């Protein structure tokens, strides 16, 4: 693979210096210090999103009931910020002025970071499995778990392939990593889609059996969770396709088409956390409203019966309030 050096700053070229090429992650002007480079990473939306996501999800987690669902969300956001710090910190270190003449043939930290990206990204199918378990615990859910586990193994293989290519080339993105991302995103999209279809099936089956299509809680589920599931599935599939297209047709299709979708994917954990929190708030608000409505109806019932007793000439005396 040939690497073309950036032309503004006189960077060295050749093996071990691919990070200074056009495909590399180092800027045109090197960072003055490691801290300077790390702080500059806040200009990158994916880095900043993972930091903000962790802060907000942690705040929501402390305010929630800290159940299994919220523990997974918190772990996913924590993994995201660790992965972002490893990748950003690596670039900040090897792109310093003091490191310009140091060859970096292999960047092992990029392979290590994949552990945290795996935890973060595959937490979404795991969260969907928890939703499925609320509807079914029989043979069907066991078969679904087996399929999701097999897809997880495939996803891990693709993610470590991406990390390996990043490690040996010393850069974050090339044609091989794009193909790896396409395969990984298709795998996780398949897992998400299977879970989504199963959730919709079980909810429809439950509604049919219990005839509760018009209940408030069911309406809230349809309005929030379904839309979130469909959004996650759609973005994952489109992002997988775009990664493949920009890798195969890089001379004709700009890489920038990935950026909006990639930023949305970075925010999946935050989107799901907000959806979960809003759903909980709406259910509790609906419960309060129902209780108030019952109390009002009960009071009106008492008024009506008290008035009837008083009118019938009974010896009891009631206030008409």
Description:
This protein has 321 residues and is mainly alpha-helical. The chain has a single domain, classed as Rhopdopsin 7-helix transmembrane proteins, CATH 1.20.1070. It contains 9 helices and no strands. Helix 3 packs antiparallel against helix 9 and helix 5 (139-169) packs antiparallel against helix 6. The longest helix has 44 residues, at 268-311. The termini are far apart. Mean pLDDT is 81; it is low at 213-217, 219-223 and 309-321.
Can you summarize this structure?
Keywords: Membrane, Transmembrane, Transmembrane helix. With 321 residues, the protein is mainly alpha-helical.
Q: Strand portion, in percent?
A: under 5%
Unreliable residue stretches: 213-217, 219-223, 309-321
Order of helices and strands: HHHHHHHHH
Global geometry: elongated
**Could you say what the CATH topology is called?**
Rhopdopsin 7-helix transmembrane proteins
CATH top level assignment = Mainly Alpha
Distance between the termini: 87 Å
Key attributes of the depicted protein:
321 residues, mainly alpha, Rhopdopsin 7-helix transmembrane proteins, 9 helices, disordered C terminus, transmembrane, membrane, transmembrane helix
Could you outline the blueprint of secondary structure elements for this entry?
Blueprint: H1 34-40, H2 45-63, H3 68-94, H4 108-133, H5 139-169, H6 175-210, H7 216-248, H8 258-266, H9 268-311
Helix pairs in contact: 1-3, 2-3, 2-9, 3-4, 3-9, 4-5, 4-6, 5-6, 6-7, 7-8, 7-9
């Amino acid at each position: 693979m040939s690497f073309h050096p950036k032309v503004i700053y006189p960077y060295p070229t050749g093996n071990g210096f691919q990070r200074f090429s056009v495909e590399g992650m180092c800027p045109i002007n090197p960072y003055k210090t490691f801290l300077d480079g790390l702080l500059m990473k806040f200009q990158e939306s994916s880095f900043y999103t993972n930091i903000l996501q962790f802060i907000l999800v942690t705040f929501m987690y402390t305010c929630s009931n800290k159940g299994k669902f919220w523990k997974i969300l918190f772990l996913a956001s924590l993994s995201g910020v660790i992965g972002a710090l490893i990748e950003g910190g690596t670039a900040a270190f090897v792109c310093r002025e003091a490191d310009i003449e140091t060859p970096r043939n292999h960047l092992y930290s990029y392979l290590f970071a994949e552990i945290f990206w795996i935890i973060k990204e595959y937490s979404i199918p795991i969260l969907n499995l928890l939703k499925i378990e609320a509807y079914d615990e029989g043979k069907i859910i066991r078969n679904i778990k087996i399929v999701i586990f097999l897809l997880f193994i495939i996803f891990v293989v693709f993610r470590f392939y991406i990390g390996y290519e990043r490690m040996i080339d010393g850069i974050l993105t090339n044609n091989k990593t794009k193909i790896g991302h396409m395969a990984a995103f298709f795998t996780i999209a398949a897992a998400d889609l299977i879970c989504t279809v199963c959730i919709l099936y079980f909810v429809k089956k439950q509604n049919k059996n219990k005839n509760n299509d018009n209940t408030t809680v069911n309406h809230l589920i349809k309005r929030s969770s379904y839309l979130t599931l469909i959004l996650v599935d759609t973005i994952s599939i489109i992002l997988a396709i775009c990664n493949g297209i920009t890798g195969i047709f890089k001379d004709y299709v700009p890489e920038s088409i990935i950026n909006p979708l990639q930023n949305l994917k970075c925010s999946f954990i935050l989107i799901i956390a907000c959806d979960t929190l809003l759903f909980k708030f709406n259910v509790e608000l609906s419960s309060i409203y129902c209780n108030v409505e019952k109390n009002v109806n009960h009071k009106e019932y008492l008024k009506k019966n008290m008035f009837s007793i008083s009118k019938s000439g009974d010896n009891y005396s009631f206030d008409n309030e």
